[in-house]
Write a structure and sequence with these properties.
Elements lengths: L1 H4 L3 E8 L2 E7 L20 E7 L4 E5 L5 E5 L6 H10 L7 E7 L15 E3 L7 H26 L4 H4 L7 E7 L2 H4 L7 H20 L5 E7 L9 H6 L2 E4 L5 H8 L17 E6 L2 E6 L5 H10 L7 H19 L32
Parallel strand pairs: 5-9, 5-10, 6-7, 6-8, 8-9
Antiparallel strand pairs: 1-2, 3-4, 3-12, 10-11, 11-12
Helix pairs in contact: 3-6, 3-10
The structure holds adenosine-5'-triphosphate and magnesium ion (MG).
Adenosine-5'-triphosphate binds next to helix 2.
């Protein structure tokens, strides 16, 4: 029918019994790169993905989500999409992010000015630095889970509504196979720290959701070693750019059939398949020119705050309030791994390992 009508493609749907709807597609919205002329701003908590095959906008919500997995061949468009997606949240004062670049390069440089911690270059090759930055997030998660009712009045931070004081924390680990795949570690000592990083990531994905922590794992080597299957299964948003094999697509998307027309195998740069709550959609991600992204992010750098410091302030405030009212106070035991930063306010005389109750 498409050649008779001289269009690229005709689709037929039956929206109501006996009513047939013909859609004549004259061009493929995914065929050519889309260059943005201004950074996109997320609506609510919907992270934009790009446009679908009908030219409509596609987005995946990160509200109440444990994590996001992103996979695809080198040059497939993963880091560019991460920059576009995080950039869309940069204006929110209730979002903070930690960036870790497993490639030890500068792919996420454009986002750095808005990160409370950016681990890149040689530092990203130091497994202990990476472990410590994730331990900070685990501390934040534990303290939030333990003190949630006193801090924000709900067990789940998403129910309370993230705020400047209690922001959503997005933890991005680009090229996560550098840490999570045991084969990346040449020595016994490195393997031991790698195993610690692996268990931290698993714990954050498993328990972090209600504490407002969203883990984003991206890899050019999508296998069950780089993204553990159980971790992937906990991530409601999955994004797969071009891959070579069905196995690689499955490692990112979960269920995947080669018979499906919606396939990321051999896709052009910037084109991928996303799985949002189990539904798969083919999309093209727009490209944000680097200087535009940098400008946008630089202008928002005033919103950066270390979430551990914010938590310490909130706990101090809670302790002070409870002391005034004579109620039992919440506990206070926080230490930030980054000694160059201002340490969180602490109760006088409290040493690390002690806890006040
Ligand atoms: N959505 C897009 N539209 C057009 N071009 C793109 C898009 N995404 C990426 N590119 C181009 O492809 C290049 C590689 O993209 P990117 O760095 O995102 O790949 P990657 O998947 O992160 O690769 P690696 O695994 O090597 O880090 C970019 O520098 C850019 O020139
Ligand atoms: Mg990259």
């Amino acid at each position: 029918m498409s050649s008779a009508l001289r269009v690229r493609e005709v689709t037929v749907a039956e929206p109501r019994a006996g009513v047939f709807e013909l859609a004549l597609r004259v061009r493929d919205p995914l065929s050519a790169p889309i260059l943005l002329t201004a950074p996109q701003i997320a609506r609510d908590w919907d992270i934009p993905l790009g446009v679908d095959e009908h030219g409509g906008a596609v987005a995946g919500s990160c509200r109440n989500v444990s994590g996001v997995v992103v996979g695809g061949v080198p040059g497939g468009g993963k880091s560019a999409w991460l920059a576009f997606a995080l950039g869309s949240l940069a204006h929110r004062e209730d979002v903070q992010w930690l960036l870790i670049d497993g490639k030890q390069g500068y792919d996420l440089d454009g986002l750095a000015a808005r990160a409370y911690r950016y681990v890149s270059g040689d530092e990203a090759g130091d497994l202990e630095v990476v472990r410590d930055s994730l331990q900070d997030i685990q501390t934040l998660m534990r303290e939030r889970l333990r003190n949630a009712p006193e801090l924000y009045g709900h067990a789940n931070l998403w129910s309370a509504g993230p705020s400047r004081l209690h922001p959503v924390v997005v933890v991005v680990i680009d090229e996560c196979q550098a840490y999570l795949d045991a084969r990346s570690h040449p020595t016994k000592d490195a393997k031991a720290v790698g195993a610690e990083i692996d268990s931290l990531v698993r714990d954050l994905v498993k328990r972090g959701r209600s504490a407002g922590i969203v883990v984003v794992l991206s890899t050019q080597r999508p296998t069950a070693d780089s993204i553990p299957t159980s971790t992937r299964d906990n991530c409601a948003l999955r994004v797969c750019f071009s891959v070579r094999t069905r196995e690689a697509a499955t490692s990112v998307l979960g269920e995947f059939s080669t018979e499906s027309e919606i396939s990321p195998i051999g896709a052009p740069t910037g084109v991928g398949v996303s799985s949002i709550d189990g539904e798969q959609i083919r999309f093209r991600s727009p490209f944000v020119p680097d200087n535009m992204l940098r400008q946008h992010i630089q202008a928002l750098r005033g919103l950066v705050a270390n979430p551990l410091e914010l938590l310490a302030d909130a706990l101090m405030e809670s302790v002070r309030r409870d002391a005034e009212s004579g109620a039992d106070s919440c506990s206070l035991d926080i230490q930030c791994s980054d000694a160059s930063r201002r340490m969180p306010a602490r109760e006088p005389g409290l040493e690390r390992g002690d806890s006040a109750s």
